[in-house]
């Protein structure tokens, strides 16, 4: 038997084995497009806009279907009813974190975002309790956000109405808020190490939303063996982790067990209390991973929403004028906006919600997985199966939000102009894995937006009709185009 024949037989056997493995479980899983051996459905998915592909598949296979990313199946949930049924009604069963290879290379199952089981439960419970003790959801953290909003205004004033790119300035504000909780420290907006961190966060969101990273997450072997932008993503993550580790070492030298100053101190104290427990989840490695998760999640999502929101407000001048009129009427010029104002500012509240709905920042959510075999709508989803929930399909539901492709604050207002809540508002996800910092993020967005518009008129450098609000990437996140603007003091 010659070499060519051996190779043909070997490849044929591998193809048959791949097909058998993929099809052996399909009888229990929801329907979906037929996967190709080894590569699955990747050629049928637009990696430049995965969310759009999911919508197209849902028109053929319904709200629950299966896609293969490589040889592994993922169950996709599309539409409010399917997402709610899984993440809310069956929250425990769908509370696992699904496969996300790029991040797994960094945190290796530690931290809050990508951990599972008791490790995740213990760290999340501890983190939420500690954040509350340091003012999350209380007046003390609101004071901190208000102070940072004023620092943000002062920094924007330095531009003296000249064109400027607000990317890093808008990143510094939310980052300083989370830094004050984690490190008990805020940075000057010109601090180079601070700007370096902002650059890493910003670059990673952009790179992780590119088609190449979608390919890397589908074929993880690429990450370890091929060159590409994924290496820059990993390099940026490790830069941030090393920065956090330095801060942890500084805290260890000055720790007062009786007087914790911040989140790191509280974690170190918990480590000391559990030092005789060989199964303790409270380790230096987990501390660094947890703080890195909080640092990134508490910075980049909020700053990107601010940046995208200001671009939308420059384009929709009528909306901006109404917000500023409401700020003038309710807050005036002589004091800072506060959360107590929100209930008296329904239009502004609606605008902030509409910005988050419209930009649809993380369109396919972070991946979930099922923690046990789950019967779901007459299908059987095996334990450990990755579940993708389309947040786009909820935020852009045309029955809840008429003309969802249009930026319209009226989506969150009733006939009388009062603010209207919606169960379809899920930019922070929902269920057990919803964003732990949702309360802080919503506070920051309201106070930062209102404080900026209280103090400045926004002036674009181009004609309003030429402003393009289309995201430059639509993968993991929707990343807004870069722009310059003039902040004209009111």
From TrEMBL:
Signal peptide: 1-25
Cofactor: heme
Keyword NAD tagged: no
InterPro entries: Cyt_P450 (IPR001128), Cyt_P450_CS (IPR017972), Cyt_P450_E_grp-I (IPR002401), Cyt_P450_sf (IPR036396), Cytochrome_P450_fam2 (IPR050182)
Principal EC category: oxidoreductase
Annotated Gene3D superfamilies: Cytochrome P450 (1.10.630.10)
Short name of one Pfam family: p450
Keywords: Endoplasmic reticulum, Heme, Iron, Membrane, Metal-binding, Microsome, Monooxygenase, Oxidoreductase, Signal
Subcellular location per the Swiss-Prot or TrEMBL entry: Endoplasmic reticulum membrane; Microsome membrane
Top-rank taxon, per record: Eukaryota
EC number in record: 1.14.14.1
Sequence similarity: Belongs to the cytochrome P450 family.
PANTHER family: CYTOCHROME P450 2C9, CYTOCHROME P450 508A4-RELATED
Protein name (record): unspecific monooxygenase
Originating organism: Microtus ochrogaster
Gene: LOC101995849
């Amino acid at each position: 038997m010659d070499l060519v024949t051996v190779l043909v037989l070997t490849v044929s056997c591998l193809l048959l084995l791949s097909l058998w493995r993929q099809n052996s479980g399909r009888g229990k899983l929801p329907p979906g497009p037929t996967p190709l051996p080894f590569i699955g459905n990747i050629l049928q998915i637009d990696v430049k806009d995965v969310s759009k592909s999911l919508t197209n598949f849902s028109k053929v296979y319904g709200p629950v279907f299966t896609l293969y990313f490589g040889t592994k199946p993922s169950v996709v949930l599309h539409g409010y009813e399917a997402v709610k049924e899984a993440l809310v009604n069956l929250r425990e069963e769908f509370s696992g974190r699904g496969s996300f290879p790029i991040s797994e290379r960094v945190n290796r199952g530690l931290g809050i975002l990508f951990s599972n089981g008791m490790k995740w439960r213990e760290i999340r419970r501890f983190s939420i309790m500690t954040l509350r003790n340091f003012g999350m959801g209380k007046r003390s953290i609101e004071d901190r956000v208000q102070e940072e909003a004023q620092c943000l205004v002062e920094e924007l004033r330095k531009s003296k109405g000249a064109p400027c790119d607000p990317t890093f300035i808008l990143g510094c504000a939310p980052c300083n808020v989370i830094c004050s909780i984690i490190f008990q420290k805020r940075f000057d907006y010109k601090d180079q190490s601070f700007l370096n961190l902002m650059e890493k966060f910003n670059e990673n969101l952009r790179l992780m939303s590119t088609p190449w990273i979608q390919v890397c997450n589908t074929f993880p072997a690429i990450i370890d063996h091929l060159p590409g932008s994924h290496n820059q993503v990993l390099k940026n993550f490790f830069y941030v982790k090393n920065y956090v580790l330095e801060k942890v070492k500084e805290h260890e030298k000055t720790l007062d067990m009786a007087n914790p100053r911040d989140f790191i101190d509280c974690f170190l104290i918990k480590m000391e209390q559990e030092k005789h427990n060989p199964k303790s989840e409270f380790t230096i490695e987990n501390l660094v991973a947890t703080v890195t998760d909080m640092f990134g999640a508490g910075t980049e999502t909020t700053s990107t929403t601010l940046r995208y929101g200001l671009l939308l407000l420059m384009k929709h001048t009528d909306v901006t004028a109404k917000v500023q009129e409401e700020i003038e009427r309710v807050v005036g010029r002589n004091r800072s906006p506060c959360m107590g104002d929100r209930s008296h500012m329904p239009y502004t509240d609606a605008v902030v919600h509409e910005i988050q709905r419209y930009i649809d920042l993380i369109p396919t959510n972070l991946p979930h997985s099922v923690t046990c075999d789950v019967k779901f709508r007459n299908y059987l989803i095996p334990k450990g199966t990755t579940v993708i929930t389309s947040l786009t399909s909820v935020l852009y539901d045309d029955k809840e939000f008429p003309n969802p492709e249009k930026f319209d604050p009226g989506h969150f207002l009733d006939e009388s102009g009062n603010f209207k809540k919606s169960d379809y508002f899920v930019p922070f996800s929902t269920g057990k894995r919803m964003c732990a910092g949702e309360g802080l993020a919503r506070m920051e967005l309201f106070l930062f937006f209102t404080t900026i518009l209280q103090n400045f008129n926004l002036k674009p450098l181009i004609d309003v009709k030429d402003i393009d609000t289309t995201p430059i990437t639509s993968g993991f996140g929707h990343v807004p185009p870069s722009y310059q603007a003039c902040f004209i003091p009111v």
